[in-house]
Structures are given as C-alpha cells and as structure tokens.
User: Fold these one by one.
Assistant:
Number 1:
Amino acid sequence: MDANMDNAGGRLQIVKEAIGKAAETAGRDPHDITLIAVSKTRDFEEIRSVLEAGQKIFGENRVQEAQTKWPAIREDFPDTELHLIGPLQSNKARDAVTLFDWIHTIDREKIASAVAREMESQNKILRCLVQVNTGMEPQKAGIDPTKAAEFVEKCRSEFNLDIQGLMCIPPIEEEAALHFALLKKIAEKCNLPVLSMGMSADYEKAIAYGATHVRVGTAIFGPRDYS
Ligand SMILES: *Cc1c(COP(=O)(O)O)cnc(C)c1O
C-alpha cells in the first residue's frame, strides 16, 4: 500500500515505518514492539479502514464506549485483540473482563481484586499491567512509583494476576524521557518484560527507552473530535 497521509490505512503504514526506524536506531528488533491503535472516539467506519489495512491490536480508554462498538466489529474481525488503557472502576470490572484481552490500568487493590474475581468467575485470563503515576500527579490514575514494586508483588501473590509489565502516561508539561526511564527502572527491578509507554507525540522516544507497547491514536486516525 502507498504511504498516503490522506487516510488512516496510509497513516498506519507511516507509523509502522517510524516504529521500525526507531527500533533500528535503538538497536532493537522491531518485532519486539507492539503497536496498539487507540480507537477511542472513532466510529466503526474509521476503525474498519484500519482493520482492513491489517491492524489487529486496538486500545480503548472507556469500557462503556468500547462495549457499544467492539462486539459488533469483532463479528466481522474475530481475531482482534483489545486493550483497556483507561481507568477502570470496580463496578465495570465484569464488562471489562468480558470484552478486553489486556488491562493496562491496574493501580489499586480494589481493582486488582475485582478483576481477579471476575476472571475467575468468567474463567478467562487477561494479561495485566500496573499503571504507575510516574509524575505523582494528584489528579492522575496510577500507583505511586515508590509503592509500585510492592503492589506488583501483591497483585501476583494475593490476587494471582498475570502481571506482565507496567504502563505510564507522563505529565504533559514534563520531559517524557525522564518518565520512560523511571518506568523502565521499576520494571527491571520487578523483572517485568512489558513496558506500555509512548503515544502519538513521543512513541519513537519511548522506543529508545525500551517501550514494548506503544499506544498511538491521533497519528493513525487523525485529530480527535470530542464534540
Ligand atoms: C488517547 C490515549 C492514547 C493515544 O493518544 P494519541 O496522542 O492520540 O496518540 C494513548 N494512551 C492513553 C492512555 C490514551 O488515553
């Protein structure tokens, strides 16, 4: 396909090429980096063009919104993998476990416990990441970086969750690299292989710092319209 900036399929191709280059520059294998196409606010038609361009892994940040779109989309595209990348309330744990394959936002015991309970009752295992509030922003979700290692251990031993790694969203006004480096350091300490970090503005930088999963919306779908 032509790398064409006018459509989502073309922009997807451009992002994939940029991921390949960033991996190469960092001396990493591009296959070790997973692109999650973030489809929040996008309708079926917009998502379909990206599915038809071959993308199989998508991220949504709201359980309710994802529920209105993905069961129907998956009838046509059954082999898609869905990642929850936004905050989870415990009263949405059941729906989240039903719909998603991964949850990136485990950040407190109440959620860890609710997700564990639902996985058991639905007999389904989701891969989980612990969200770390690397900027210690009071309004932002995520566990405090100093408590992350202990929390990861607890998720494993007490709740039996399949914790694969860590996720962060750096503060907008700060140098993202500092936060990527901190997340990597905590992951190494915990012996965790997965690092979900990097969005449209900084995924190449995140790859330089070891990201294994980048979450890219705008660079694929174009600017979001929240109206
Ligand atoms: C929306 C969102 C993204 C994608 O952001 P873009 O800047 O559009 O690439 C990534 N991660 C999370 C948690 C998001 O909510």
Number 2:
Amino acid sequence: MTSSSPLLLLVLILALSSSSPVLFVAARAGAGNYYHVAGSRLTHIRMYMHETFAGPNATLIMSVPSPLGGNATFGSVGVLDNELRNGRDRQRSALLGRFQGVFAGAGQVNPPGLVSAINLVFTAGEYRGSTLAMLGPVLAFGVPIERALVGGTGKFRMARGYCVMTFLETTSPVSLVNQLDLFVEMHPAAAY
Ligand SMILES: *[C@@H]1O[C@H](CO)[C@@H](O)[C@H](O)[C@H]1NC(C)=O
Ligand SMILES: *[C@@H]1O[C@H](CO)[C@@H](O)[C@H](O)[C@H]1NC(C)=O
C-alpha cells in the first residue's frame, strides 16, 4: 500500500473536511420524528471509530486498487478492521468492539460511490457478544455518512435502524477518529 493510493487520498480528503456539529443535530431531529411511529422505540448508541489508515498497524487496507489507474476509484476494494471505542481519545477510552467490513468503488459516473458492508462486532460493554449488520453507500466525502442498520445478532436480533458517521479529527499522521451515532429499533423479545 502506498500513500498515493486513490482510496487513501479520499480518506484523507474526508479527514480534512468535516462538519460534525451540524450532523448530530440532524441525526437527533430524525430520531425525534421517528419516535412518533406507533409501537417503535429507538435506542441511541454513540461510539467512536478509530482508524489507522497507513503504517505497520493499519486497520484499513486497500486490497485492490482500481485497475483503471491514476486517481480512479471504480473497481477498487478495501477492507477495514477499525476499533470501536467509548471515547474520542484513543488512549483514555475503552475498546467496545470492531468495525469490520469491505468497501468497493462502484461509482463509475459519480465517484466515489462506495458500496460498504460492515459488521459492528461488540466485544465489551452492554452489547458484548452481539453484532449489527450495516449496509450503505459513501456517495461523497466531507459530509456525514448515513448507512442502514439492516439486522443483527444476540441483543440485536431483528434490530433495524440507521447509523450516522461524522468525522471528528485526525489523531496522528496516520489515524483519525469518527463519531458513530446508531439509532436502533430493538426487539428484545427476539433476544435470548
Ligand atoms: C504497532 O503496534 C505494536 C503492538 O501494539 C506497537 O508495539 C508498535 O509501537 C505499533 N507501531 C506503530 C507505528 O504505532
Ligand atoms: C490525481 O489527483 C490529484 C489531485 O487532484 C492531481 O493533482 C493528479 O494530477 C491526479 N492524478 C492523475 C493521474 O489523474
């Protein structure tokens, strides 16, 4: 992996253009509206995703660069195993789980058009042993990224909802942190 790989450059662009405060307000507004749907109840889970995008301990790798070369992202594939923590300060926060997934550049006409399939794997805390499945696009960088929570296991059996991911800051030359706000409709009766 080189520092000039297109997807990594896009990650950096994401890192340098954030709008985090605005996003969370929008997410809360959405949740507020959803509360009025009869019989539904949303649980808000906030976590912080810590990503190391280069170096020996990288948690994101560009496995397949675009065969089109240059700065193209179409056809590229990457894999992530980022950390989920309960705080934005990596040293002072507890590991809650992993943000594991694959993404591919599927935007030929309008890049990046990333397709992402991600498992939120909880290894500690209230949801230890449970997972959430998340699907969704990354149509643009520098804006909040919203994805669908399409199901889960353990305490998240039959769960659904959405996740809004907001870039917070770079934490070193090779790492960054995003805030994750999950709004999940739980189905406790389905949990064991
Ligand atoms: C990578 O991780 C190892 C093991 O935790 C650590 O000793 C090393 O300092 C890390 N390297 C960098 C560049 O962070
Ligand atoms: C890639 O993008 C950078 C920044 O926009 C630009 O300077 C460079 O010429 C591009 N490279 C190619 C091969 O298109």
Number 3:
Amino acid sequence: MKINVPFIDLKRLEPGFHSVLMEKFHAMTLNAQFIGGAEVSMLESRLQGELQVAHAVTCANGTDALQLALRAAGVGEGDVVLVPNVTFWATFEAVVNVGAKPITVDADLSDGGVCFEAFERAILEAKPKVALVAHLYGWGTARLLELRKLCCEHDVVLVEDGAQAFGVRYQNESIYKGAHISTTSFYPAKVLGGAGDGGAVFTNDAELADKVRRLGNHGRTAHYGYGDVGWNSRLDSLQAAFLNLSLDHIDARIVSRREAVAYYQKTLPATGIQLMSAPAGYEENGYCNVCLVPEPEVKAGLEARLKAEGIGFGNIYPSVMSSQPGAAAYLRGHFGAQVGEQLCASVLNLPLFPYMAETELQRVVDVVGAALGGDHVL
Ligand SMILES: *Cc1c(COP(=O)(O)O)cnc(C)c1O
C-alpha cells in the first residue's frame, strides 16, 4: 500500500488524552496555578520513582539541565570539560555557557557513544574537572560502568546527558540510577515530551540536588535571600501537568516504540541496510532508529527514494561538534581520531514513534528494500 509515513507524529496520542488535559488546564488556569505547586512536586516525585533516583529537580529545558548540572558540580571560568564530539549542540553549548573550556572526545562506531580509549587518554592528559557523555539514540555506551569507574578513580565528575534516554534500562535498572548526576529534556519530540520546553536534573546526592534547585531559582535561600547567582529555570506548572498526564501513558508508549524497533530488527536486515542496535545489557527505549549507510552515493540514492515515496527520515547528527563554525572560538582540543565524522556521515534515521501501524513499518521497509535493489516490489 502506497502510504506516506512521517518521520515523527506527535499528534498520535491516546484517545481521551486531550479532554483530560483540557479539564486539568481549565482548573489550573481558574486557580491561577502557574508556578510550582502540586503538579511540579508530583512530577518530581514520580520521576524519582520511575527512574530510581533519589532526587529529581525539574527545570526549563534540557540545555539548562546540563548547565545546572555543570554549575552544581562546581564548573566555572576556565575549567576543562570533556564533551563527546558526536552529540546535540546543546551539550557543547552548556560547557561554554558556564565559562568552561570544551575538549571533544571521538566517537565509537559500534554504539555511538564516546571512544573509551580516547576518553581515558583525555582524562589522564587533559585533567578535566568534569566529563560529559551523552546517551544517544535510545541506549547508552557498552562501557558505561567502566566510564563511571574511571571518572570516579580520577576525581572527575561525570555528567550524563540523558536527554534521549528516558526509559532506557541497563542491567535491569534505569540508566539514570547509577549516574552521579544526569539530565533529561522534555522537548516534545523526546520520549517523555512536553507541550513545549522542559528538563530535569537527577542525582542521588542530596547536596548536589539542593544546589541544582537553588541555581535554577535565582540562587534563592529565602524569597529575598540569594546564596548564589543562578537564573530562572523553573518548569511551568501547566507544563508539569501535561508531563504528569503523559507519564500515565509512558509505559504503553515505550512498549509501542520497542515493538517498532523489533519490527525493524526483524525485517530491515533482509534489505541489506546496516542497523545499529543497543549494546548487550541494554533495554532500549525506542527513541530513534539508526541505520548506517557509509557509501555516500548509496545514502543519497536511498534518501531520494524515501523522499519521492513520502517516507520521512532524519540524520541525527549530520556533523561533529568540532567542525561547527560556532565551536571554533571555544574548542581547546580533541582526543581520538575522526570516527565521529564517519558516524555522522553514515547515520540515516527511519521513522520511529509511538503507535506506528504495522502497515507503516512495512511500507518503510519495502521502500528501503526497493531502493537498495532487493526484490521488494512496491
Ligand atoms: C534534546 C537534547 C538536548 C537539549 O534539550 P532541550 O530541552 O532542547 O534544551 C541536549 N542534549 C541532547 C543529547 C538532546 O538530545
């Protein structure tokens, strides 16, 4: 069947979601409940339970969450911070915005995380105060525990950017549980997406959590008492209400994402395309599909065919941090090779979102198969 398949469809929500939401918004608006309050506290305690962390502090967006985590970890003017060369630009930006000096670390083609050897050398030679890693695509690096241990042994605070990792489990536990400090984003396209911007910082350390909370609320120690210079990074109450309602459905959404992943895993290999998967020990959240198409002409041909057939696709991310024009003035070095460039040039993301129909998944696979010259008949 020749149907169009979008890359992502955020409008595909559970029946009844909107009417419950409107009732909630109506009551909150009548009561002028806009900042803090029950919805924000409820969201934070639900996040703690869901992600198995002792403290969850909500904030305005995922970029602020990184800046709050870095500031709370004591990063400031002139400190060296390691940042993956393959990540979303916000990871790099956060380092610069807190006054620190970013050094990039190469990627690992097998899982999209940092190259462990390059990371280790950077820890030993660059002596960073903090190292950032980003759990991209819906899983974490194969060597997560080694990364955490290495940082611990060298007194380097590891900040884990979990913006894409909501629902990811490693060795039967939430990936956030074992992190010293980690973050997420509630940008609408993320796994737990809001009706706008939002984010959160997670930690098991009460002192760090207090610091994050204070920094995100003007450094407040009392209503008119300021123990730090922070900024306003509070999550709106209406946003928290939307997220609480979304949390009611998050398990079903993640199950549906994982079913789509399983479908692709079962059917895509026959088309000849190379599919990237979560390393052993992970239960991925189905955030995105990652195919690797290293030959530029093949990739261009496939993309043209997908476009012509009305199939959405993406490339997260098309280029590394160190080659962005905006990075030049701040970059203080790079560890490792240029595997990141190779990864960025090869990634092709096919449609993946909750409640995709099997006919849609089949159509995507058929078009890929036909474009790659298999025996798929369209
Ligand atoms: C989305 C994202 C962010 C930033 O989150 P915002 O809420 O958009 O500020 C940071 N890091 C990664 C890896 C992301 O995917």
Number 4:
Amino acid sequence: MSSSTSLANGRSYLAIPGPSVIPDAVLQAMHRPAPNIYEGGLVAMTETLFPDLKRVARTRHHVAIYVGNGHAAWEAALANTVAPGAKVLALATGRFAYGWANMAEGVGAVPQILDFGRRNAVDLNRFAEALQADTRHGIKAVLVAHVDTSTSVLNDIAALRGVLDDVRHPALLMVDCIASLGCDRFEMDAWGVDVVVTGSQKGLMVPPGISFVFFNDKADMVRQTLPRVSRYWDWAPRIRPEAYYNYFSGTAPTHHLYGLRAALDMIHDEGIEAIWARHDRLARAIWAAVNVWGQDGPLQLNVMNPDIRSRAVTCLRIGAPHGANLRRYTASQLGLTLGLGIGMESGDDPNCDGYFRFGHMGHVSGQMILGLLGGVQAGLIALDIPHGKGAVEAAALVITGG
Ligand SMILES: *Cc1c(COP(=O)(O)O)cnc(C)c1O
C-alpha cells in the first residue's frame, strides 16, 4: 500500500485518554474577553457550578475546585486528610496508584502499596487481610483509582467500601475518578466514598487546568483534626468563602469556568444515566471489534474479564513494535491519534511499544468510534499485522443494538 498520500487532513480525532475531545460549545463558551472577577455574571455563574458538579459525582456533600491538573487534586485530597507520618494504603491496578502514593510521600505520609498486577482488579481478600493486619488503625486513608488509565482496569468501589465496613476499619476511602467520572457509572454517596478526585480534561470535556475534590463530612472532620493544612490546598475556605477570591485561593480560572458551565449543561441535558449508557455501548463495540481481530493475530484487550473493564479507556496489547507502528500510521496517514502504552514496561518492551490505548471518554459518538475502529483496521492492513476479519462489522452490530 502506498503511504505517499496522507489522508490526515480534515477533522482529526485525538483518541487518547485525556485530554479528551472538547465540544464546540465548550470552546465557544471560553472564547470571550476577560470578565470582571469582582462582581457580575462570572460570580453568579460560579455559584451554579457546585450543585451541578455534585450531581455528576452523585453526592450531596461538598466539592472544592482547584486551579491545577489531576496531580493537583491528588495533592489537595491528601493535604486535607493525611498528617505527616500517617500511613496510607494504595491499591495498585496499574501505575496511577503509584503516582498518588508518590504524592502522599511528598506530603509526609508513609504509603504502603498492594499491587494487583496490570490485568486484574483489586483482590478483596488481600485488601481485607491488609486492613486486618493494621490492628492499631495506623492506615488513615485507602487510595484507589476507579479506573486505572494505564491498564484500563475498573475497580468495584462499592465492594471496597464493603470490605472496610466488614473489618470495621475507619480509614477514609479516597477514589481517583479522573478517568472515569462522566463515563463509567460512579455513585459517591451510595457507594460510601469519602473523598473523590477528578480533573476537567477527561469525561468533563473541558481543557486541562482545573480539578475537583469532592468530600463528605467524615473527611471534613478528619481535616479539622489535622495540626495544619497548607493554605493553598485547604478545602474549607473553598466551600465557604468569605469572598469570591477564596473559592480559588486567588484569581478565578475564568475561562475554564465558562467552559465547565457549558460542559455541565451538555451533561445534564443528556442525563448522566444516558451518558453512562452511551459509554457502555461504545465500549462494547470496541471490545467486540478487538475480540474479532484477536481471533487471528496478536491484538488483544489488556483486561480479559469484561466485568472489570473501563468504559472510558481501553488498553490494547499487540506486541512490540506493532503498537508504536500502528499509532504512527493512524496519526500520520489518517488524522487519528491513539494513546501511548504507559506503565506496561517489561524487559523486552522497555518503551511499551507493544501497547496502545483508546480514549473514548466524554464527547464521543458512534460515528467517531466506528471511525476509530476503521482507522485501526486500515493500520492493521497497511502494516501487514495479522488479524481476524469482520471486526468493524462486529462493532457495527453492537452499535445498532444487535
Ligand atoms: C489522567 C489521570 C491522572 C493524572 O491527571 P493529570 O491531569 O495528568 O495530573 C491521574 N489519575 C488518573 C486515573 C488519570 O486518568
């Protein structure tokens, strides 16, 4: 096949697991002159964001907004809940729990990591054993990613709460929903989650730059017992500000807030249940296609068990150097940018060239997912990578409800 004629012009699809596709309505809402930050429309509009964010996380508790990315929300959650020297237990189903545990170390906590590998969810028995071994309740918080974006493993958060309750361990349950919020079903209050962190640039469809910490009264009580909380990360003034300026500990992220307003309008117009159903259908279409490709070739889903697969991101295994080659092909020839493999390093694949990922979070439709799968189909043909036939058709059957 000739690669001299690139077909990459025209509208592209950045199909990486964040930043995600930004809706035109969000872009247009941000395209405006600098607003007055003392009074008027911006101040009134900001007040509307808090209840609408809480509806997305399914909580009636609190949410603080930070100027920063997901890492900022990680640090903010820890700064309000963990005193120097306290133990935290990180449950790793990919590399993101290591990232959060590393932040915990940075604020003076002592992380203990339980690693469940790269293709499995948290094992509840091992989790229970670790809690039971902590007879003096030195562990103050459990850190877990709802969806680990490197592996695309989805964890059963309600089950983790069940384990904490069964063994009567008082640690806070703190969940990273940066990849999953607004994509995979998540119920903060019903599932007994104490603290949730998320960012703007994935399911919430806003450019990177603001992030969110949701917390309940139990977590807020813990905050009140800490000897000190760094002023910038302190969530208390951010939920009960004396002045508008306190919401953000400084200048408001003005344009991001307008973008967020537009995104929340889209989310609540569609309805969160409908959004979960859309992500579920699109994810199933992807799985169906990959299963067919894998019937006669090296491509497979990283997560074998469908019960623990994310609906927001999919990690694929194809063997080095096919993963890197496929990404290069779809980006340069088709205008389709696939996600890098991360956190899957091994001796024979130090750069994760045998992996790639699909981001299918937020503003994604049936035609985009069929285009994504058609693009991979073209790449497999162009690069002569063996694969089963009929994958896009299998996806179309799922899309049409078959
Ligand atoms: C994207 C992501 C992060 C990191 O967010 P940044 O904005 O890059 O700091 C953390 N955890 C998960 C699960 C993510 O998907």
